[in-house]
């Protein structure tokens, strides 16, 4: 494991159907890594009143969740081993909360998709996976979560047949993943309840020689920042910031670098004005620095006064490609269906523009993975759409860059975040 | 307050790049607030979390020149909700720090809400912690704040773990956990209607340990309550209750002297210290690594009443 990888926190989400044991698995990771403190454990032991403690109660933090025994919203949890820090986004499994699963996936380096063996007829070939397994894997793949791991859970319920069941379901998962274009980072047999292969190797399943889930998580790469390529910065905040004693207050344009790097002396172009300038000073977190790179927020002081404000983009001197029309994958999250022709707000970088969905080309069937003709997208559906924005935007393909290729779509009447857009290609 | 131990020697397994990443994210969120809202404010209680957020805000909006001092002013005022039951050391620290930094402070006094009749106490020594919400919402309305920056962390409590970084509040200031907006990438949907507002939490992803590591690394000033000192306390239900005007001993209880520090500072009626000899941030880091009781479990009387007490208060508008 390289040093760089070792020290970056891994953000991963857990997904699966209701009752697949996500919360128990997270509780297990926290419990085994001693991230649960004595008073929290006491509370669980009191609730259990003598029987086995319910680790899922650690993560279900809302009253309604405890009442209904399901996870409604994303919960964020933290634990650390000597090798690495982890941030878990515990995403709900129930279909009506897919938008929260999408929320969790958008910020994650990895996805752990739980497969509940007790819900599958693993003796009949080919094994049929549950729709939610397919949906969650697909969502993770669509949002380009870099690593997707399958954890086949509750194998303790069929200890004697665990090897055969694991083999059959692994085969089905590999086949599904192949069709969907997913390269699984691993398939791990676990019992979150008993603890097998979560953090500690199973004492009974000697047929499995691969890594435990935690061992696997230790090796997965974090973030996908690109330090190569041309400079691109969405301008987040512009302010006058003084220089000591001079009374001179140059304007500093701040923004997190999407890709590339910047140093004093570089020539840059501002979009949409098209004006160019030379970078006089690069600032970072209250100090003047030599250079900033992707992932860092750079403050640029330019050598001349340009019209530049929040929502603009700063790029290398080469002209920025912009377009008003583009094709995108749309994950629809609103109970009101996506409507062709209606005006929505779009957010790209730090810019808000009005836009229309001009066409819905297809809907992705999560069972067959086929794209079928569609005229509307309902809540939790995913499709291919055409977008027309009211102003030209420097959109990039999402596969090339998350910052340049991701947008949200907001209902102007309710202000709800209605959809997530991932740019396929400029039309 | 200077760290006396070499942090790297103490914690070989923790790399500062993790703190750099957390800092980068927090500064991004703070600038997003300043860019997206017209009248934001920073909730400043003088607690360790808000002191960390304040330092992050300095890094986001000021420049550090010769002498290492920050110059310039934050693009928003600080807001403190004063319950009238604050530890005197905290108020003294607040006023001194803000004067040193040249920042603007707005104080919402719970006492004023009592005078107005918007808060009614059932008895004079009742904990004022839960009543803060009323005063907070009145301050938001009076100053027309559209976003309040807070130092809440998701590792503090189960309901907090569920909250978005940009958390929408309706025109009653209420949090609606089932109606939270999806938070996609860092494309925050900060659109609001008149009367609504947002709460923004730049250090959502920090843990108590991260906070102490950062305090030690950045040499952030804190109220001296956080460091080991002798204090008169009463042992009650497994907690150390500090002896104050508003927390007198009950019949049969004895007052004793103990070496304590506070892990969190809040209203005097519900904040308890822990026994500890840790006298600086580095020693507290070392202690935090081996602690067995959560921050709230060890120190807060009010959260023990119910599994959902924090959630209920947040739904009413608590930060």
Automatic annotation (TrEMBL), chain A:
<dbReference type="InterPro" id="IPR054696">
    <property type="entry name" value="GTP-eEF1A_C"/>
</dbReference>
<dbReference type="InterPro" id="IPR009000">
    <property type="entry name" value="Transl_B-barrel_sf"/>
</dbReference>
<keyword id="KW-0548">Nucleotidyltransferase</keyword>
<dbReference type="InterPro" id="IPR011779">
    <property type="entry name" value="SO4_adenylTrfase_lsu"/>
</dbReference>
<dbReference type="InterPro" id="IPR000795">
    <property type="entry name" value="T_Tr_GTP-bd_dom"/>
</dbReference>
<dbReference type="InterPro" id="IPR050100">
    <property type="entry name" value="TRAFAC_GTPase_members"/>
</dbReference>
<keyword id="KW-0808">Transferase</keyword>
<dbReference type="InterPro" id="IPR027417">
    <property type="entry name" value="P-loop_NTPase"/>
</dbReference>
<dbReference type="Pfam" id="PF00009">
    <property type="entry name" value="GTP_EFTU"/>
</dbReference>
<dbReference type="GO" id="GO:0005525">
    <property type="term" value="F:GTP binding"/>
</dbReference>
<dbReference type="Pfam" id="PF22594">
    <property type="entry name" value="GTP-eEF1A_C"/>
</dbReference>
<protein>
    <recommendedName>
        <fullName>sulfate adenylyltransferase</fullName>
        <ecNumber>2.7.7.4</ecNumber>
    </recommendedName>
</protein>
<dbReference type="InterPro" id="IPR031157">
    <property type="entry name" value="G_TR_CS"/>
</dbReference>
<dbReference type="GO" id="GO:0005524">
    <property type="term" value="F:ATP binding"/>
</dbReference>
<dbReference type="GO" id="GO:0004781">
    <property type="term" value="F:sulfate adenylyltransferase (ATP) activity"/>
</dbReference>
<keyword id="KW-0342">GTP-binding</keyword>
<keyword id="KW-0547">Nucleotide-binding</keyword>
<dbReference type="GO" id="GO:0006790">
    <property type="term" value="P:sulfur compound metabolic process"/>
</dbReference>
<dbReference type="InterPro" id="IPR044139">
    <property type="entry name" value="CysN_NoDQ_III"/>
</dbReference>
<dbReference type="GO" id="GO:0003924">
    <property type="term" value="F:GTPase activity"/>
</dbReference>
<dbReference type="InterPro" id="IPR009001">
    <property type="entry name" value="Transl_elong_EF1A/Init_IF2_C"/>
</dbReference>
<keyword id="KW-0067">ATP-binding</keyword>
UniProtKB/TrEMBL annotation, chain B:
<feature type="region of interest" description="Disordered">
    <location>
        <begin position="296"/>
        <end position="319"/>
    </location>
</feature>
<dbReference type="GO" id="GO:0000103">
    <property type="term" value="P:sulfate assimilation"/>
</dbReference>
<dbReference type="Pfam" id="PF01507">
    <property type="entry name" value="PAPS_reduct"/>
</dbReference>
<keyword id="KW-0808">Transferase</keyword>
<dbReference type="InterPro" id="IPR014729">
    <property type="entry name" value="Rossmann-like_a/b/a_fold"/>
</dbReference>
<protein>
    <recommendedName>
        <fullName>Sulfate adenylyltransferase subunit 2</fullName>
        <ecNumber>2.7.7.4</ecNumber>
    </recommendedName>
</protein>
<keyword id="KW-0548">Nucleotidyltransferase</keyword>
<comment type="similarity">
    <text>Belongs to the PAPS reductase family. CysD subfamily.</text>
</comment>
<keyword id="KW-0547">Nucleotide-binding</keyword>
<dbReference type="GO" id="GO:0004781">
    <property type="term" value="F:sulfate adenylyltransferase (ATP) activity"/>
</dbReference>
<dbReference type="InterPro" id="IPR002500">
    <property type="entry name" value="PAPS_reduct_dom"/>
</dbReference>
<feature type="compositionally biased region" description="Basic and acidic residues">
    <location>
        <begin position="297"/>
        <end position="319"/>
    </location>
</feature>
<feature type="domain" description="Phosphoadenosine phosphosulphate reductase">
    <location>
        <begin position="40"/>
        <end position="272"/>
    </location>
</feature>
<keyword id="KW-0067">ATP-binding</keyword>
<dbReference type="InterPro" id="IPR050128">
    <property type="entry name" value="Sulfate_adenylyltrnsfr_sub2"/>
</dbReference>
<dbReference type="GO" id="GO:0005524">
    <property type="term" value="F:ATP binding"/>
</dbReference>
<dbReference type="InterPro" id="IPR011784">
    <property type="entry name" value="SO4_adenylTrfase_ssu"/>
</dbReference>
């Amino acid at each position: 494991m390289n040093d760089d990888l070792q020290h970056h926190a891994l953000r991963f989400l857990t997904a699966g159907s209701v009752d697949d044991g996500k919360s128990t698995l997270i509780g297990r990771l926290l419990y085994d890594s001693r991230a649960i403190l004595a008073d929290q454990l006491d509370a669980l032991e009191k609730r259990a009143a003598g029987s086995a403690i319910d680790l899922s109660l650690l993560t279900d933090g809302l009253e309604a969740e405890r009442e209904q025994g399901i996870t409604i919203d994303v919960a964020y949890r933290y634990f650390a081993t000597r090798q690495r820090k982890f941030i878990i986004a515990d995403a709900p499994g129930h279909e009506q909360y897919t938008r929260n699963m999408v929320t969790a996936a958008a910020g994650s380096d990895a996805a752990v998709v739980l497969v509940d063996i007790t819900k599958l007829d693993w003796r009949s070939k080919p094994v049929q996976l549950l729709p939610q397994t397919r949906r969650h894997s697909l969502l993770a793949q669509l949002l380009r979560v870099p690593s997707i791991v399958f954890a086949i859970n509750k194998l303790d319920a069929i200890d004697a047949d665990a090897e055969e069941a694991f083999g059959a379901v692994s085969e089905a998962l590999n086949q599904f993943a192949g069709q969907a274009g997913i390269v699984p980072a691993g398939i791990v047999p676990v019992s979150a309840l008993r603890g097998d292969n979560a953090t500690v190797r199973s004492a009974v399943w000697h047929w499995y020689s691969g890594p435990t889930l935690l061992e696997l998580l230790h090796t997965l790469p974090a973030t996908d920042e690109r330090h190569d390529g041309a400079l691109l910065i969405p301008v987040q905040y512009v302010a006058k910031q003084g220089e000591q004693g001079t009374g001179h207050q140059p304007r500093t344009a701040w923004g997190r670098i999407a890709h590339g790097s910047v140093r004093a002396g570089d020539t840059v172009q501002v979009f949409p004005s098209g004006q160019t300038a030379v970078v006089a000073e690069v600032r970072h977190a209250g100090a003047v620095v030599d250079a900033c790179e992707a992932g860092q927020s750079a403050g640029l002081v330019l050598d001349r006064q340009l019209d530049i404000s929040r929502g603009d983009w700063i790029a290398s001197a080469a002209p920025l490609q912009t377009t008003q029309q583009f094709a995108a994958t749309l994950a629809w999250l609103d109970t009101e269906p996506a409507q062709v022709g209606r005006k929505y707000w779009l957010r790209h970088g730090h810019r808000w523009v009005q836009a229309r969905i001009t066409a819905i080309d297809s809907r992705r069937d999560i069972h067959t993975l086929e794209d079928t003709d569609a005229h509307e997208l309902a809540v939790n559906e995913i499709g291919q759409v055409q977008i027309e924005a009211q102003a030209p935007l420097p959109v990039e393909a999402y596969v090339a860059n998350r910052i340049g290729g991701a947008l949200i779509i907001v209902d102007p009447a309710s202000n709800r975040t209605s959809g997530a857009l991932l740019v396929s290609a400029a039309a | 307050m200077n760290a006396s131990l070499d942090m790297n020697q103490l914690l070989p397994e923790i790399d500062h790049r993790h703190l750099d990443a957390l800092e980068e994210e927090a500064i991004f969120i703070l600038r997003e607030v300043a860019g997206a809202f017209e009248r934001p404010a920073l909730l400043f209680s003088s607690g360790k979390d808000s002191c960390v957020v304040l330092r992050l805000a300095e890094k986001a909006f000021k420049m550090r020149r010769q002498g290492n001092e920050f110059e310039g002013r934050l693009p928003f005022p600080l807001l403190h909700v004063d319950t009238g039951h604050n530890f005197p050391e905290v108020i003294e620290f607040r006023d001194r720090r803000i004067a040193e930094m040249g920042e603007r402070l707005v104080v919402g006094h719970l006492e004023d809400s009592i005078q107005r009749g918007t808060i009614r106490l059932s008895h004079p020594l009742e904990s004022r912690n839960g009543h803060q919400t009323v005063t907070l919402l009145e301050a938001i309305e009076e100053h027309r704040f559209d976003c309040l920056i807070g130092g809440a962390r998701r590792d503090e409590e189960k309901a907090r773990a569920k909250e978005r970084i940009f958390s929408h509040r309706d025109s009653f200031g209420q949090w609606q956990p089932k109606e939270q907006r999806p938070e996609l990438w860092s494309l925050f949907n900060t659109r609001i209607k008149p009367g609504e507002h947002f709460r923004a939490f730049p250090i959502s992803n920090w843990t108590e340990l991260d906070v102490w590591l950062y305090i030690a690394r950045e040499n952030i000033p804190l109220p001296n309550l956080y460091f080991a000192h002798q204090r008169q306390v009463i042992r009650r239900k497994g907690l150390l209750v500090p002896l104050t005007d508003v927390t007198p001993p009950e019949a049969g209880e004895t007052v004793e002297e103990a070496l304590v520090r506070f892990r969190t500072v809040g209203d005097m009626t519900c904040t308890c210290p822990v026994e500890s000899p840790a006298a600086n941030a580095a020693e507290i880091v070392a202690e935090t690594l081996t602690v067995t009781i959560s921050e709230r479990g060890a120190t807060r009387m009010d959260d023990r009443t119910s599994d959902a007490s924090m959630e209920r208060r947040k739904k009413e508008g608590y930060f």
